[in-house]
Amino acid sequence: MDESLRAQIETYLSHLDGLIRRGRKLRDTLATGSGSTWSPPEEGSSPTGNDSSNKSSIAATRAWQEDCGVTINQLSGGSKAHWLARSFSEAFLKRSASGIAVQGAPPEEIVERLLDVLAQAVTSLSQTDDSSIVSASLEAPAPHRFDFVHNLDLRPIVEQAYSDSRRALEQQHYDLALRTSCGILEAIVTDALEHKGPDALAAPEIPAGSISDWPFMARLGVAEKAGLIRSGCARLPAVARTYRDFTDANGAGHATEMVTERDARQTGQVLHIVMRDLDPGR
After folding, report:
1. Where is 247: in which H helix or E strand?
2. The CA-based dihedral angle spanning residues 83, 85, 89, 90, taken in that order and rounded to the nearest 10 degrees
3. For the chain, what is the radius of gyration of the CA atoms?
4. Measured between alpha carbons, how far is 2 from 26 in angstroms, rounded to an integer?
5. How far apart are CA 89 and CA 70, in angstroms?
6. Can you tell me the distance from the alpha carbon of 237 to that of 239, in angstroms, rounded to the nearest whole number?
């Protein structure tokens, strides 16, 4: 087998292993939940839930499902006709007494089904004589999550950083994942502010100096007041709000404050919200 293909397979297997571990933890948590039902997510959006008594578990499961969807889409080469993509979509359906597929199933059942889909992907990737699943992903066009960014030179940088943040999260490097997500958030909001122009941002709350010199939270606040983003940044954990200040003195970039998995994942969720705000068509 070609070495580059083998390396891709190993990368996917490692990523799938992380998704499976997260899914099992979610399944165990949801097993004691209220049994609310979800509908399958529309393309470009994450699943929605209606279990107000278990919001944190629902939010974590939503984020996990979105991550599963991105990975399955990559492995399927972006084709909805691929068997893996079909299996993913069918995981959100339940069967009526007559055998007809209808939308909506208990969240823990959906998680269990998605775990089975991920296991199928692992099995396929582990068959060294069948590389078709990876070949499909190699033939797919590169993702363009940041086409809404006005600075063309910035797009590939934040695209790579986005991939790096997801990889760091799966490898449990939570401080790196959080700082990378914050860096992306700062970059895309700054791009939106600069495109709008300082004259259109005129307000008493605007800091002095150029936009690139403003503090991180000041940029987010001005962007919200200007209507560029909504209030999603209010969910940023405290450690994310001061992410530029918690690196060690030698500049190595290691966190001097403890960054938890919850901090990193919540920051990533806020980033997704802001990406949708800046690109309503996503």
Report:
1. none
2. 20
3. 20
4. 36
5. 12
6. 6
The rounded distance, in Å, linking the Cα atoms of 238 and 95 is 44
Are 107 and 51 within 8 A, CB to CB? yes
- Angle (deg, nearest 10), helices 3-30 and 154-170: 60
Measure the CA–CA gap between 157 and 129, rounded to whole angstroms.
35
Q: Sign (positive/negative) of CA torsion 190, 194, 195, 198?
A: positive
Question: Can you tell me the distance from the alpha carbon of 233 to that of 17, in angstroms, rounded to the nearest whole number?
Answer: 30
Give the tens place of pLDDT for each residue, 117-165.
999 999 888 875 555 666 655 555 556 789 999 999 999 999 989 988 9
Q: Can you list the alpha helix ranges (DSSP code H) found in the chain?
A: 3-30, 55-75, 83-90, 107-126, 132-139, 154-170, 174-196, 216-225, 238-241, 261-278
**Reported pTM:** 0.59
Residues 154-210: pLDDT tens digits? 999 999 899 889 888 878 899 999 999 999 999 999 999 999 988 777 666 688 888
Res. 48 pLDDT band, cuts 50 70 90: very low
- Residues 51 and 41: their CA atoms lie apart, in Å, by 16
Chain centroid, CA 32 distance in Å: 26
Q: Which two tokens stand for residue 70?
A: 């991105």
SS3 label, residue 103? strand
